[in-house]
C-alpha cells in the first residue's frame, strides 16, 4: 500500500493505484475523519477524535482492501 499526500487528505491505495483506494485520512482541519470507499468508490466519512480511533473502523478498512485481491 502507498500513501500519496494531498493538501487536504492522505490517501491509502493498494499497489500505488489510484483506482484502488482504501481510504482517505482527513487530519488537517478541526474535524478529523477517515473516509472509506465502497464498491462504487463512494466515500463514507467516519468521524474520529484521535489517530487511535482508526482502530474503530479497522474491520471496515480490511473489507475494502480485500476487494482488490
What secondary-structure arrangement, pairings included, does this model have?
Elements: E1 10-13, E2 21-26, E3 32-37, E4 43-48, H1 58-66
Antiparallel strand pairs: 1-2, 2-3, 3-4
Q: Helical element count?
A: 1
- List SSEs in N-to-C order: EEEEH
Lateral arrangement of strands in the main beta sheet: 1-2-3-4
Residues in helices, as a percent range: 10-25%
What would the principal axes of the Cα set say about the shape?
globular
- What Rg, in angstroms, do the CA atoms define? 11 Å
* Uncertain segments: none
Portion in strands: 25-35%
How many DSSP-defined strands? 4
Distance, first to last CA: 13 Å
Structural class computed from helices and strand pairing: alpha+beta
Mean pLDDT: 89
Largest sheet: 4 strands, antiparallel
For this entry, give a set of tags:
69 residues; alpha+beta; 4-stranded antiparallel beta sheet; 1 helix
